[in-house]
Amino acid sequence: MWFFNEMCMSKARLDGKTVVITGASSGIGKETARDLYTRGARVILACRNMEKTNEAVEDIKSNPPSWMKKDKYKNNVGELAIYFLDLRSFKSVKDCAKNLLTNEAAIHILINNAGMAAASPYEKTEDGIETTLQVNHLGHFLLTLLLLPKMQSSSPSCRIINVSSIAYIFADIDFDDINLERSYALFKSYARSKLANILFTKELVDRLRKANIHGINVYCVHPGIIPTEVLWNVNNAVLPNFCFTLGRLFFKNVEQGAQTTIYCSVDEKTANESGLYYSQIIVSTPKNCGMYPVVFCIWN
C-alpha cells in the first residue's frame, strides 16, 4: 500500500561489489539496479530483451533515484553491464552462468527478480516445463546453483535475494501434476511459482548450513502490489475490472516496490539474517509453507 510504504534508509555503499539482477530491464528490477548503481556497485543486468535493456542502462545513467539530487548524480556511481539471459531456456541459463563465471572476478549479490505472469494459452518451454514455473522458479534455481561457487569464493557478506509475491498464499503444489497439464489456470500457475521461491529460500539456507558454507545469506521478499506488466497480465486473468480499479488505491510505484529488495541487499541489520521472508522492509511469517519440506526440483 503506497500510504504504508517504507523506504530503505541505509546509506551503505557497494564500492567494489558486483551485483547480478535478473529481469532488470524494467519494473522493480530496473529501480533496484538504479539504486545499487548509485551506491557504487558494478550492476549486471541479466535480461532477455537486449534492446530494452540497453534503453534501461541509458535511463539509469541519466536519471538518479528520487532520494538523490540530479546535480550530485554520476559522482561515485558504479558500473553497468549487460548479460543475455533467457530463463525460458536452461541452455541460456547455463550459458549466462558460464559467461559470468568466466568474465567476473566476483559476485557478491544475486537478485533473482525476473518474473512473468502465467502464459495464456498453456505453454511449455523447450525443456518441457510449464513456462511460468521455469521462468519464475526453476531457471533461477539453476542460475543460483551455478553461481554459488563464485559467490562462495567472493564471501563473506554475499547475499541472494529471491523476489516472491504474496500470491503464494493461494498456492498448492500437486507433485503428480507438476506441469499442470490436468489442472492449468493462469493465477494458479503464478501463485505456485511464488510459493516455490519461498521454499527454495528455506531449502537453500538449510543446504548451505549442512555443507558448512558460510558468508552467503539468502532472503525472500514480497515487493508489494506494483503496476508492472506482470500485474496487468495477472489482472486480465483473474480479477473483474472494478476490483482492479479499486485495487489501484493500494498500488506502489516501482521505486517503492524495489525498497524491500534493496533493504535485503544492503542494510547492515540484514547482514546477520538469512532464510527469512520480508514484506514492507520487515520480517514476516509465510503462511502454510511448512507442508512442503523439500523444494520440488532435482538438487545435484
Tell me what the structure shows.
It is a single chain. It is built from nine helices and eight strands. Mean pLDDT is 89; it is low at 291-300. Strand 5 (158-163), helix 5 and strand 6 form a beta-alpha-beta unit. By secondary structure, it is α/β, with parallel strands linked by helices. Helix content is 39%, strand content 14%.
Oligomer: single chain
Radius of gyration: 18 Å
* Class based on secondary structure composition and strand pairing: alpha/beta
Weakly predicted, low-confidence segments? 291-300
Distance between the termini: 40 Å
Major sheet characteristics: 8 strands, mixed
Number of helices: 9
Overall pLDDT score: 89
Assign a percent range to the helix content.
Answer: 25-40%
How many extended strands? 8
Widest beta sheet: strand line-up:
3-2-1-4-5-6-7-8
The geometry reads as: globular
| SSE pattern | EHEHEHEHEHEHHHHEE
